[in-house]
Amino acid sequence: MDIFRLIQDIKKHLKLSFDEVERWFDKDKATLNYPPSNGGWTVQQILEHIYLTNFYLLILIEKGSKKAMRNYLNLDLNLEMQHYSFDKEKFDKVGEYGAFEWIRPEHMEPKGELNLNEIRSLISQQYHQCLNYLDLMKNGEGLLCKTTMTVNELGKINVYEYIYFLSLHAQRHVIQMKNNELEIS
Q1: What does the pLDDT look like over 89-105, one tens digit per residue?
Q2: Which domain, by its residues, includes 45?
Q3: What pTM value is reported for the model?
Q4: CATH number of the domain that 132 lies in?
Q5: What is the annotated signal peptide range for this record (predicted)?
Q6: Radius of gyration of the chain from its Cα atoms, rounded to whole angstroms
């Protein structure tokens, strides 16, 4: 696996996902606040949920990146890169809305405590945090730390895969927001 290509692919995916999320902040109030008939969240609540989930994932990504950089001193990065393969299919279901049961923790549920401009600013900062971690671990160091991800039984995933997961999670909710908007029409 070419780790440099993987990092570039994750950067592209992040840009596409975050650009799509960004567009939703400019929707009219009726679209942002429409409660779907299935009892789900409004677009504004979904945007807050994306921020909250990113917040908690970025805590794990920060810890993982620090550990990966420490591990760089003691582990053979070249050996890790030689044996690494990215199982894209395993992750792609994460980006599909409704592809599997997803029970999120209560602390990731929107509470309505932030206004739209605050959420927008925070999500933008989170995007740049992800890019900074990818730049920090630009030589493959992100392979040197794995953390368990229970969602969809992904198991032990490395720091790059955590960042990709974060991007897929946003993509998943873009689909949900589109479904809300379609229902209004």
Answers
A1: 889 888 887 777 777 77
A2: 3-184
A3: 0.95
A4: 1.20.120
A5: none
A6: 17
